[in-house]
Design brief:
It is a single chain. The protein has about 100 residues and is mostly beta strands. It has a single domain (about 1-35, about 50-90), classed as Hypothetical upf0131 protein ytfp (Roll). About 5% of the residues lie in helices and about 35% in strands. It has a five-stranded mixed beta sheet, with helices on one face. It has a two-stranded antiparallel ribbon with strand order 1-6. A hairpin with a 4-residue loop joins strand 3 (about 10-15) and strand 4. The longest helix is centred in the C-terminal third of the chain and has 7 residues, at about 80-85. It is globular, with a radius of gyration of 13 Å. It starts with a strand and ends with a strand.
Length: about 100
């Protein structure tokens, strides 16, 4: 499935390297490029999906609750995943 219209909060997206990067000063959210989403079965997957990938939560609204949580997407990163967890990086469907 192709998804467009998600906003990345707490980080920026490096289009050249296709991975998370530090956000610019005073920029809270950035529009993500088109994302291709596909499902996989982790019990049969040969490569561990957590190696070098940040498990980014996706929310309907900026209020991050169990009611607005949709799913998680794995985003490539050069930094440790704990770095992005501490920054509270998430994908949002709506910024209002």
């Amino acid at each position: 499935m192709y998804v467009y219209g998600l906003y990345l909060e707490g980080a920026a997206w490096d289009k050249n390297n296709a991975r998370l990067t530090e956000s610019s000063p005073k920029v809270l959210t950035v529009l993500m490029p088109l994302i291709h989403i596909s499902a996989f079965n982790p019990s049969v997957a040969k490569k561990d999906p957590g190696a070098g990938l940040y498990k980014c939560p996706v929310y309907k609204k900026p209020q991050r609750t169990d009611l607005t949580y949709i799913a998680s997407l794995f985003l490539d990163t050069a930094k440790p995943t704990d770095h992005w967890v501490m920054r509270g990086v998430a994908l949002l469907c709506d910024t209002k």
